[in-house]
Amino acid sequence: MTIFKLACAALVLGTITAVIMLIPNWNGPGASTAAGPIDTLLDVMIVISSYVFMIVMVPLAYALWRWRAKPGDESDGEPIHGNTRLEIAWTAIPTIIVLSAAIYSWIVLEDIEAAEDPLPIEVTAQQYAWSFSYPEEGKVAEELHVPVGQQIALELRTLDVIHSFWVPEWRIKRDLVRQAGTPSADIDDDVVVTPTEEGTFTLVCTELCGYGHATMRANVVVESEEDYEAWLAEQEDIEEPTEGAASAGADATSGEEPPADLGALESEEQ
Amino acid sequence: MELFQTEQTGYPHLVVPGITAPLGFLVGIGCFDYWFRWAAGKPTLPEDHSQHGAKTWKDYFRFNTDHKVIGIQYIVTTMFFFLVGGLLAMLIRAELAEPGTQLVDANLYNGLFSSHAALMIFTFIIPVFAGIANYVLPLMIGAPDMAFPRLNALSFWMLPMAGLLFMVSFIVPGGAFDAGWTGYAPLSTGAPLGQSFFNLGVQFAGASSIATALNFLVTIITMRAPGMTFWRMPLLVWANLSTSLLVVAATPFIAGAQFMVLLDRVLGTNFFQAALGGDVLSYQHIFWFYSHPAVYIMILPGFGIISEVISTHARKPIFGYRLMALALIGIVVLSYTVWAHHMFVSGMFSWLRVPMMITTLLIAVPTGIKVFSWLGTLFYGVIHTKSTAMLFSIGFLVTFVIGGISGVMLGMVPIDIHVSDTYFIVAHIHFVLFGGSVFTVFAGLYHWFPKMTGRMYDERLGRVHFYLTLVGMLGTFVPMHWIGMQGMPRRVADYAVQFSSWNLVITIASFLLGLAQLVFLYNMYVSWRYGPKAAANPWRAKTIEWQVSSPPPVFNFPDIPRVVGGPYEFGVPGARHVIMPGEEAEVARPAPARAEAESGGQAPAGAQ
Ligand code: HEM
Ligand SMILES: [Cu+2]
Ligand SMILES: [Cu+2]
Predict the structure, then answer these.
(1) Which member of B320, B485, B496 has the closest CB to residue A82?
(2) How many Cβ atoms are within 10 Å of B21's Cβ, its own excluded?
């Protein structure tokens, strides 16, 4: 009943691994409605993966211990060429597992991307700076401020190369590909997010965009509706309200020099 | 919007020599002599075999059409690029040891990781497998040489050209190419001159692999010894057949992508200039349509090596041989359908994400079949755990499974949205490329070292190399998962201080990893010169290359061998794979290629 014992060992060790692996908060603190479903999906995957890992490692370790060659042993192993039932099993079972995982991921994806009357904000990137404009209020800013609990729709534009918008706590990332001022060329440049925690976060550029890439960051402030309104009132007006972000972004920042060393930069979350 | 092309991207007076100088070199060393004579209507030189074999080490620096010489040329050259790429990696890690800028500025840093990746991928991993297969595969199928020996030599000589172009880019105005090995437009179309050297280097490396792949395909399909049916081919041959199918169909896409970038840069075309009607995302689609299959180009030959090594050093027939071969074909087919999983956050049309996620996750199934079959092969074997080749295969099983698991996680769109373009990706790549591909390269090099050099290597040093490499590898790449998920993006010269302690750990481990490779180089060099003479078949393997002397005679076989059974008939009484010329044909009945029916009951699952 070796197989049975190995299976039990794999289950036990898989459980232990899963429990240990679930202790750290892998994705870090979450601060949007997307964080919950994504982190749960990740946890489920960690559990499944722990078992998969042990289902390979336990038999591997056992085989190495049980059938290691003694010095000078020149004999051959048993001439086993295969086992059709076993081979069907290890084709079919993984197929079922990955297909279920795909369906689950699909559900999570639909969930985190569902839009309900979001507040539009235009995000414009250029080497190596960010700017934000609030078309409904006619304002532009160099920091992203958003009211807590309100779904926002980020419209992503770039003035030069590709950049990428990532706020780790929001679990949201999307490249900025569409050239400001050009018509949509089938580029999905809209991403929705609903911040749930107040605080200051860091917007990180994750697409290599040149020598200032590492330091291309901006502050993201999630605050109460009143603080947000007050802050917005102090911001500059958009110059040509119709043309929007392109020109506003261009003069909102100089965009030439990358900010100073990140060495001094500390995530407020730590 | 302004044009991105600036005067610094053009430089026709440097780009044109960048193309012609390597071609001139290839002409100069005689790569094209035969074709020139043929085209000029002069009598072509009959194959006089004067270009076969290598008598002194100097012969390895000449144009040579012997597949064994070319194999060695490939392996040594790619190992050189491995070394250069590794040194660049050490520099990268040194800069990242602490936050802030210490050794290199951001520009040079971007050049360092770009050329590190380009050298490792295009001039080490992909061609080193071509080198190993060049040496071993014709012997394995009982062929006297590759199908097109001159083309084979040409393929090799294009490779140093590619590496040279990558390395030279460090000294051109504006510095090395710095848009990453993925060279996304429009960053690459507006980059300084060095980027053109990347575009050109990729052409030479790509042409080299396409030519080699064609050569392998024709060799495998038409030059197998009598009796070697497809179902009697060793899995290394199956693996190279699958890889070659990927290369011939996919590599033209990266060639096209790089040409389009070059044209945008030098001739002012607008393939990728959005403001002028170009389509930025099309670069990524074309690039990944090659580069996802390319990740399998970088691992399938390794799968073949692992099958040979595990079967031989565990003295067992491969478990589920046919399913192993079919899994390779399954991976080939599926890998053309998953490219956009690299673009989940790229802003491509969102409906494409779910279908691509499903195919991506499905690719884990044939990959899993291979892992389980290797496990099945180990069961009831006689496992030589002291052999370095076997150790690297076992290490490969552990690290590759981890890399596969992180791959499945990346394949799930919601998880990928969070970790894409972070250090998590760096961890995944290196688990599959270092823990995967590089481990299989080491396994293969140790396994066939006696055959290639006629000498034995030092097994003790081999084990030291393995354990140091394993520890260094885990220490370097395990923590990267964590810092990536916690918020550290990839391709950055500088990072927030919250990541500094892990980065220091990673840097220290990576230096251990680098040092471990010195043990390997020392072992290889000293053993090649002074090692004890190797017997023809030190591992008592069944495949044909082990049935000839070590190193093999210049023309491989005095006469064509005859294949009479499967390649892994360990422990089957009286079974033979091959009857070598000169052996009495007293060996009677070919063993059944697959004795599954009789032996199924003894399989580990007998316990069902
Ligand atoms: C179980 C099998 C695998 C799966 C499901 C998988 C999945 C993925 C996914 C989804 C990505 C993209 C992540 C992103 O860019 O956001 C990725 C990246 C990558 N994978 Fe895999 N992978 C697998 C095996 C491999 C193998 C065998 C190799 C090579 C030997 C490999 C090499 C790479 C490389 C080089 C990248 C990074 C490309 C870049 O620079 O962006 N993967 N993988
Ligand atoms: Cu960037
Ligand atoms: Cu891929």
Answers:
(1) B320
(2) 14
